[in-house]
Amino acid sequence: MTTESGLVVVDKAPGMTSHDVVARVRRLAGTRKVGHAGTLDPMATGVLVLGINRATRLLGHLMLTEKGYDATVRLGVATTTDDAEGEVVSTASTAGVTEDAVRAALATFVGDIEQVPTAVSAIKVDGKRAYQRVRDGEQVELKARPVTIHELSVGEVRLGDDHVDVDVSLRCSSGTYVRAIARDTGALLGVGGHLTALRRTAVGEFDLAAAATLDGLSDEFRLVPIAEAARASFPGVDLDDAQAADVRFGRALDLDLDGLTAVFAPDGTFLALYEPKAGTARAAAVFV
């Protein structure tokens, strides 16, 4: 059984739920204290960041970071889930859709936008997951939420009379639904749309180059130590002995911070996350 704390970066295979991955990593790590930072749908592949032991407490903060995706949007077909796993609800001819129109439509999503999440999502509505309400036959209407698309590049556009397939790459804020971008692009063009492929390429500083498949983890368990993970994910401040002692009691520090910051003892031990508040630096989460 491992007693270490840190992050494991998995390249999730298609067909698995995020919970399936957590269950497998629990067995490999020899501990039940495993959680993940941001669900990936079974259809999706790519970067899934998991926390082991004390590092599970980092995950809520990691979920606030930006994420990267590669995706394929199919225009001309709308589904109940806004992706290929749902039932088709409408089709339309795409004979009049041009590449310029597709690129122009997708460009409108770059920046700070209001996005209505897909109805089949984990968002709670009156205490019940939206996807469960949909499965129970209820009509679900979610409110638009602010998200940020930092960058969206359009790759190949494959035109056809029955449908149009578009490859896109994007960087976005946490909470962005790529399925909703597919849906809304189809709506702008008047033909409907859904997602046929999704691969998460990065969560914050952790990308596919840092990821291992579950089979690879079975051969060699790759743990990013919690101190290394904290330095990679947040700005860092090295403290002196007196400041480190204050942190262990959760006391405020006289530090000028710009945002959530990892603080370290003189020997490099990761101590806590601190944030600016009321003119001082206060503990957001203490790890010792």
Q: What does it look like?
A:
The protein is an alpha+beta fold and 288 residues long. It has three domains: 6-65 and 206-228, Pseudouridine synthase, CATH 3.30.2350.10; 67-203, Pseudouridine synthase; 234-286, PUA domain (Archaeosine Trna-guanine Transglycosylase, Chain: A, domain 4, Roll), CATH 2.30.130.10. It contains eight helices and 18 strands. Strands 1, 2, 3, 4, 7, 10, 11, 12, 13 and 14 form a ten-stranded mixed beta sheet that branches. Helix 3 crosses helix 5. The longest helix is centred in the first third of the chain and has 12 residues, at 18-29. The protein starts with 5 loop residues before the first strand and ends with a strand. The model has no long low-confidence stretch (mean pLDDT 92).
Main traits of this protein?
Archaeosine Trna-guanine Transglycosylase, Chain: A, domain 4, 3 domains, four-stranded mixed β-sheet, ten-stranded mixed β-sheet, alpha+beta, Pseudouridine synthase, 288 residues
